[in-house]
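Hi P.,

Sorry for the delay on this. The queue was packed all week, but I finally got your sequence through. Input first:
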Amino acid sequence: MSGRSLHEPEIRLAIGNEAALGRLAARLAARARPGDLIALEGDLGAGKTSFARAFIRSLQDEPEDVPSPTFTLLQSYETKAGLVHHFDLYRIENPAETGPLGFEEALGEGIVLVEWPERLGALLPAERLSLRLEFGSTPDSRRATLRATGSWAARMRNIAVNE
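Then the structure:
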């Protein structure tokens, strides 16, 4: 990282339904590159796994089943953008438990999506894209807040523009 300070733009979006969340995931996936970390924050049921599924499927030539890694803690996928590692750290109690999962190696070899990133503690990289999902005013709607640091800041331009 250079000596400059990290710029953190924040973007707030209204997400009307799961299809709209999928479109956001595809737009972010198109901007992602190996070495990136996307931290998925929010309560249970807020849409973190739905976002991850749509993100991964948008990068696959032939969309495949994308199960939640709640019990396996990690699922990895070969995509046209390279490896995508999807971590679900809900069951992790100590950041040291991520060592056997190969978290640091995953950052070096692909794109990393992390549900429950706060469980990483000090291991959570400063340079990342954070996506916080919150329940909206209807059962299917969500509010999304994106915070970008490092190289993600420049890639966030026009992310809110509808297709």
